[in-house]
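Researcher: We plan to redesign the surface later, but first we want a full-length starting point. C-alpha cells attached.
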C-alpha cells in the first residue's frame, strides 16, 4: 500500500494523472488504476474527477494529511535501517562450545567490537545443545551440521584431530606404533555417550577402530587438554586446540601416519548456526568476520 500512497500524494501535489505519470515514469492509465485500487482498499472516494479538474474530497483531504506524515516516517525508517546495515547496534547473544569460545572467539571480540562500537556481545560457553528461539540466542557455533530445519548453517572451519600426550606420559608409557596399542593406554574421553567408546583411524583406503578407555571424560576439550598437559593420559582433540602445545613441545603427537577421528564419519566441521527467517545485520557481519579470520 505504501507505493499506492506515494502515487496518491504525488498526484495531489501535481494536480493531474498525466503530470504524475511523467514524474513517476508510468502511463497515465496506470496512475488512474493505482488510485482506483487505493480507493477500493480504503473504501472511500479520494478525488472528484472531471475532464478538466481533479480535486480532493473531504475524505481525500483528511487522508492526504496523514499520508504525507506516513511517507516521511517511512523514509526516516528506511534510512535508519540502511544505516544500521553499515553501523549496526544492539546486543548479539552467542552460544559457543567452550574450548572454541575460549581459544578463538574471545580473542577476536576486541577487534570486531572495535570495528562496530555500537554493538554488544554476550558470550555463553555451552557444551550442550541450545534452542536458539527459546533461549533468545542469535548465533550458535557447534561441531556438526544442524538437525533443526529452522536453522541455517555456514561453515567456519573443517575440524581435524590429533592423538597426543605429554612428554612425561610417554616417558612412563611406550608410545603406540599402531592404533590397536591405544587399548593399553589411559585415553581421556571427549563427551562419552556409550558404554563402549571408540577412536577411528584411516589411511590410504585402510580403516580401523579401537575401543578406548580411561579414567577421565568431559564434555569440553579444555579439561582434557589440561589433564593431558599434566601427564594423565592420551587425548584425541582438535588440531586447532592442540597445535600451540605441540609446537612448544608440551605435547607429543603419535600415529601421525594415520588420520584419527572421533566418529566413523570423521570429526565434523564447525558451523555458525542462525535463524533461517531473521538475521540481525550485526550477526551477518560477525559471521563474515569469523569466516575471514579462520580462513587466514
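Model: Full-length starting sequence:
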Amino acid at each position: 500500500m505504501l507505493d499506492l500512497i506515494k502515487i496518491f500524494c504525488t498526484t495531489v501535489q501535481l494536480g493531474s494523472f498525466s503530470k504524475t505519470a511523467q514524474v513517476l515514469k508510468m502511463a497515465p492509465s496506470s496512475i488512474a488504476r493505482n488510485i482506483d485500487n487505493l480507493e477500493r482498499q480504503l473504501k472511500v472516494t479520494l478525488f472528484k474527477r472531471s475532464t478538466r479538474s481533479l480535486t480532493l474530497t473531504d475524505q481525500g483531504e483528511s487522508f492526504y494529511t496523514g499520508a504525507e506524515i506516513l511517507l516521511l516516517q517511512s523514509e526516516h525508517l528506511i534510512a535508519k535501517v540502511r544505516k544500521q546495515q553499515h553501523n549496526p547496534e544492539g546486543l548479539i547473544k552467542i552460544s559457543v562450545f567452550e574450548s572454541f569460545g575460549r581459544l578463538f572467539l574471545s580473542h577476536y571480540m576486541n577487534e570486531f567490537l572495535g570495528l562496530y562500537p555500537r554493538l554488544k556481545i554476550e558470550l555463553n560457553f555451552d557444551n550442550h545443545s541450545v534452542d536458539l528461539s527459546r533461549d533468545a540466542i542469535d548465533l550458535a557455533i557447534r561441531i556438526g551440521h544442524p538437525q533443526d530445519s529452522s536453522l541455517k548453517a555456514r561453515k567456519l572451519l573443517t575440524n581435524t584431530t590429533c592423538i597426543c600426550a605429554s612428554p612425561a606420559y610417554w616417558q612412563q608409557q611406550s608410545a603406540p606404533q599402531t592404533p590397536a596399542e591405544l587399548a593399553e593406554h589411559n585415553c581421556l574421553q571427549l563427551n562419552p555417550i556409550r558404554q563402549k567408546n571408540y577412536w577411528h583411524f584411516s589411511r590410504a583406503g585402510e580403516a580401523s577402530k579401537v575401543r578406548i578407555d580411561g579414567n577421565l571424560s568431559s564434555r569440553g576439550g579444555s579439561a582434557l587438554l589440561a589433564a593431558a598437559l599434566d601427564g594423565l593420559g592420551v587425548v584425541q582433540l582438535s588440531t586447532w586446540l592442540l597445535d600451540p602445545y605441540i609446537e612448544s613441545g608440551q605435547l607429543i603427537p603419535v600415529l601421525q601416519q594415520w588420520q584419527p577421528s572421533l566418529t566413523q564419519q570423521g570429526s565434523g566441521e564447525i558451523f555458525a548456526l542462525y535463524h533461517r527467517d531473521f538475521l540481525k545485520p550485526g550477526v551477518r557481519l560477525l559471521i563474515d568476520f569469523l569466516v575471514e579470520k579462520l580462513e587466514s
